[in-house]
Design goal:
InterPro entries: ANF_lig-bd_rcpt, GPCR3_GABA-B, Peripla_BP_I. The chain is of the alpha+beta class. 40% of the residues lie in helices and 14% in strands. A hairpin with a 2-residue loop joins strand 2 and strand 3.
């Protein structure tokens, strides 16, 4: 097995940026403070999937900020309100896509932003097995 994997490269998303643990996230809390709060809530138990917290935290904030931007977009153009959402309303879809274009913030994984296709731009981690 060692012969097979020696020198292999792995590529993965960075789940938590250790060097930014003292920098406040979009919520105003640092990653360390958020994990401390998590530990209080879970009474120090590490629940299944807790290592995936950044995969939920950052997208939830992105959606919230994107919806806020969408609401402003709709108001400026006189196109209604988010509360009037309908799956068949193309203008609402456009507003939501436009709302994500201007979203950028510091999350648990670090700086979060979207490209022109509204895809998240992630930091990646490259490791070589030795």
């Amino acid at each position: 097995m060692n012969t097979v994997v020696d020198g292999a490269l792995t590529i993965d998303r960075m789940m938590r940026s250790k060097e930014r643990d003292r920098e406040p996230t979009v919520s105003g809390f640092t990653p360390d403070e958020l994990y401390e709060r998590y530990n209080v809530i879970t009474e120090g138990r590490e629940l299944f999937g807790s290592n995936l917290i950044p995969l939920a935290y950052d997208p939830v904030w992105a959606m919230a900020l994107g919806l806020n931007n969408s609401s402003k977009f709709l108001r400026k153009r006189g196109l209604g309100r988010l509360e009037d959402f309908s799956y068949t309303d193309a203008q609402m879809t456009e507003a939501m896509m436009e709302g994500l274009k201007n979203v950028s913030f510091i999350g648990l994984k670090g700086y979060m932003e979207f490209d022109e296709d509204q895809d998240g731009v992630d930091d990646i981690l490259i490791k070589q097995i030795r």
